[in-house]
Amino acid sequence: MTDTAQGQKAGADASPSYSIDVSGCLEAAIGEHGLSPALVSDYCARFEPELKRLQEEAVAGSLPILKICKARDDLKVAEAAFEKLIVGANTLVFFGTGGSGLGGQALAQVAGWNIPGVALPGHMKRCRTRFYDNLDPSTLDGAFKTLDLKKTRFVVTSKSGGTAETLAQAISALSAVKAAGLEAEIPNMFLGISEEAVEGKSNGLRELFESFGIALLPHPDDIGGRFSALSIVGLLPAIARGLDAVQVRQGAQEVVDQMLAVQSVADFSPALSAAISVGMSKERGTRSLVMMPYADRLSSLARWFVQLWAESLGKRGEGTTPIAALGPLDQHSQLQLFMDGPREHLVTLMRVPIRNTGPVIDAQMAKQAGADYMAGRAIGDVVDAQAGALPQALAKAGRPVRVIDIHSLGERAIGALMMHFMIETILTGRVLGIDPFDQPAVELAKVLTRQRLSEGSKP
């Protein structure tokens, strides 16, 4: 433990896909604002029982999120349903809020979704992909007015089948399709993802879709929304963008395999990261956890992480506030706060290999602009310099920072990162004495929303 506390790259062999360095959170790097070797050892010791418990659950197959990495049959069924759905289509719309949308977006973005101008020729031949995860009347109205409904297909996801926002979207889409004279085509235009039917348990989406003859794929009943990215909920959008879903799960399995092989928290980066995070919160007053990738293709992963961390850990007065940022953009919009505001931010940087990539900056024009330092450099060199300088700047300011270096951004890497963050979240919740899988406050808000609507309450 002492070597790690002195700044060794922790968990560097956790996955072939990435490595993480937590030395920027330690006393040796940021002085009194970091954790001492004794504190690191103490918090690692607190996590040891929970790491052992998670290892036992992985061996027994009793924790579904760990077991699903090896599943393949559900992917075959999802791929077949997808191929059938998109016949004659040019646009694929995904309806689903929270965990039913964010995981799929994070995966789809690795293949270029929602990043202008980066779609590869193979992607251009695929259906355009749209996610409507937030319920907004003008947005939905505009969508139905501008979509070529005859060539549009809809995937609707709600684990319980009772999510008000998703039901509202589904019903509105069905109404729009009927109004366009396409009612007979509804079974070919829609696909649902929801829990299997259970006697005595209501499932509005399933009942609605079955009445129209719409096929439904089974949502795992033992994996909640924010943990469902590795199920078909997240992997169907990945498939739609041309990603290899098997490779995503294999990347996640690499992290599980590493967990089973380690002997201590210090040897397993998700566990060590969790111990450092809790230690910084309890001992040094960090209240916010910033997720700041230096790649557009990871910006939605940061948003997915925000829900994962916030909804899993924000209970009974516990938890830290997750913040999604994006480098280099947020070096100009949020970094001032992180570096010179209250000492309550722990920044996690995610970097990808980008040197010598992108357009080359013309040397003469750079000199004319007074930017000789960029002359002849590639855009990737500029971003790489920024991503390398920021941890140094944060350390000089005595601000904690963790750095995740992704060796090659693709299916395996995104699967590994998602599993890393899920395990880190689970371990953190259990050490804090809270259930990382429920969301009681969210459920209360849903109940009150239904109550206000049923009573005709007005704003």
Question: TL;DR of this structure?
Answer:
The protein has 459 residues and is α/β, with parallel strands linked by helices. It has 20 helices and 10 strands.
SSE diagram, text form:
Elements: H1 2-5, E1 18-21, H2 27-30, H3 37-60, H4 64-67, H5 73-85, E2 91-95, H6 99-110, H7 121-124, E3 128-132, H8 137-146, E4 152-157, H9 164-179, H10 186-189, E5 190-194, H11 204-212, E6 216-218, H12 232-240, H13 245-261, H14 269-284, E7 288-293, H15 299-313, E8 321-324, H16 335-340, E9 345-351, H17 363-368, H18 379-396, E10 401-406, H19 411-431, H20 440-454
Parallel strand pairs: 2-3, 2-4, 4-5, 5-6, 7-8, 7-9, 9-10
Antiparallel strand pairs: 1-10
Q: Give the neighbour order of strands across the main sheet.
A: 1-10-9-7-8
Any idea what the shape is? Answer: globular
- The assigned structural class equals alpha/beta
The averaged pLDDT comes out at 93
Could you tell me how far the N terminus lies from the C terminus, measured between alpha carbons in angstroms?
A: 56 Å
Provide the low-confidence segments as ranges: 1-14
Q: How many strands appear in the DSSP assignment?
A: 10
Indicate the percent of residues in helices.
40-55%
The ordered string of helix (H) and strand (E) elements is HEHHHHEHHEHEHHEHEHHHEHEHEHHEHH
The Cα radius of gyration reads: 23 Å
Structure description:
The chain contains 20 helices and ten strands. The protein has helices at 2-5, 27-30, 37-60, 64-67, 73-85, 99-110, 121-124, 137-146, 164-179, 186-189, 204-212, 232-240, 245-261, 269-284, 299-313, 335-340, 363-368, 379-396, 411-431, 440-454, and strands at 18-21, 91-95, 128-132, 152-157, 190-194, 216-218, 288-293, 321-324, 345-351, 401-406. Strands 1-10-9-7-8 form a five-stranded mixed sheet, sandwiched between helices. Helix 3 (37-60) crosses helix 14 and helix 13 (245-261) crosses helix 19. It starts with a helix and ends in a 5-residue tail after the last helix. 47% of the residues are buried. Mean pLDDT is 93; it is low at 1-14.
